[in-house]
Each structure stands twice: as C-alpha cells, then as structure tokens.
Amino acid sequence: MALLTPQGVKEVFQFQKPQGREHLRRLLNWEDFDELRDAPQSILLDTLYDSVIFAVGKGFPWVEVVQVVKFTEELLKETKGCCITEAVTILGNKLRDYQKQFNITHLLALCDYFHNTFIRHYKLYQYLLSQDQEVNLRVAHVQVCSPPQPLPLTEGVDRDLWKHEQRVAELSSAEVQEHANVLLLKETLRLKQLHMLQKVFGGEETPVELQPRQTLRREALEGLVSEAIHIQIACLQELLQYEIQAAFNILDLRLQKKRLSLGAPPPPLPSITAGQAAFEDYPKPSKANKGKKAKAKK
C-alpha cells in the first residue's frame, strides 16, 4: 500500500480495465499470480479496482481515493471468517475510524457502497475469499483458421444463377468425359485385337503346318481367316455397343442442358447507380437543336 499514491490511482483510472488492474497490482506490491488458478486473489484485486472506479465516479479527490482502497483492503481482511452481524459491526467501526479522512457526503456514499455490494453479497464473498477453491482446469490449444478473403461484391453472382452455371458445367464435363471414354475404348480394343491376332498367327501353340517355310493347307488358311474375322467382329461389336450407349448418354446430357437453358434464372437487374450513369452519358440536346425545334413548331 506504500506505493499507492494519488498519482498512482489516477493512472489506474486512466487505463482500460485489464491494464488498470495490472497497474494496481504492481502499486500494491503484489507478486504476479495465475488469474484462473488463484481465484481469491483475482477477486480481491477486482474488488479493490472497483473501489477505485466507485470513488472516482463519486467525485472523491485523488487523496481520498487512496484511502478508499486502503479501507476496502482492511475491511476484507478483518471480516474474513466472521458472521454477517460481526461484519456489519466491523464496517460501522471502520467508518467511524475513517470519518476524519472523508467529509460527511463521501462517508455516507462509502457506507451505501459497501452495504449495497459487500454486505448484500456477504456470503458469496466469504465463500470465495475464505475457503480454498479446488480448480479443475484443462487447457486446450486450438488453432483457428481465419476464413479466406472474400471477393468484391461487384464480382458476386446470384445464388440461383450460380447453381445453374454449376449444373451446366457439370453436364458439359460429363459430356466431355463420355467422348474421352469412347476414344479410350477404341484404343483399348485396338490393342486387344492386335494382341489376339498375334497370338493366333505367331503363338507358341501354332501347328507344324503353320510354321515358316511350309505350305499352308487350305483348311488351315480358312481357319486362320475365320479366327481373324471372328476377333475383328467381336471387337467391333463391343465398340459399337459402347458407342451406341455413349451416344444415348450424350443426347440425354444435351437434353438436360437444353432444359436448364429454358429454365435459367433471369439476369440481375442493373443497379440504380449504373442507370443514372447511363442516363448522364446520354447526349443532351444543344441550344441550336432547341431553336430549330421551336421554329419548326411555328
């Protein structure tokens, strides 16, 4: 309390509450403490800080504000563990002891302040300040990702129009994928057909009659041609079936796009400022044109 001076309490009042509480703690020569784990000390500091705010708000001189803080700290210590009757008696005796420090108006204001705060909530003060509190505290560090910077409002799109554009883009992408699948299947079937033909004409299980430098018999040649035709027809049939199905899928996608284009939401109305600008840009009739119009009317 020795460091608490009129200039000190003036600085406490001028700071915001967090900085003011911390400055008051240093002036009281208190050691630093954990606000969450040492609840009684934190509540006591809050009470002393509130007494400063009360005294300044009531117009107490800075010298008397120091006495109010001293009065508050002594009252809290002397009433610790007492019943409410004893606390009221201690409050009356202390007001009598400090009557030379304050004028009658400020003394009555101080009495009303402690009756309406400390005495009215006396049991709560005693529970918090007189008993050791068990604090179960868990600290979790959570990383908060800030949202991305929004685009300018001028680049915004109506929600229904945006959904329509997204659906059209999905259908267009699906159509492109259908064409790509057809090309991929063509290449796959070409390689498959080439592999099967190579296996027929040059495989390890080729009969002796088909080996090089030997004359092919008519039956063997007909079998080779028939097998090659069968392979080509099978691959062509598979490709044709897939192309037909892909064509139906593409037509269905185009039909959906056509329906979407017919039911597209209307474009947004132009803004008022844009209309005014267009009106201002419209050429105004000159005085000569006004004169010609007047002569024409005559």
UniProtKB/TrEMBL annotation:
Compositional bias ranges of the Basic residues kind: 287-298
Organism, as annotated: Nannospalax galili (Northern Israeli blind subterranean mole rat)
Chain intervals for the UniProt region annotation (Disordered): 263-298
Xref: InterPro entries: CLAMP
Name of the protein in question: RIKEN cDNA 4930578I06 gene
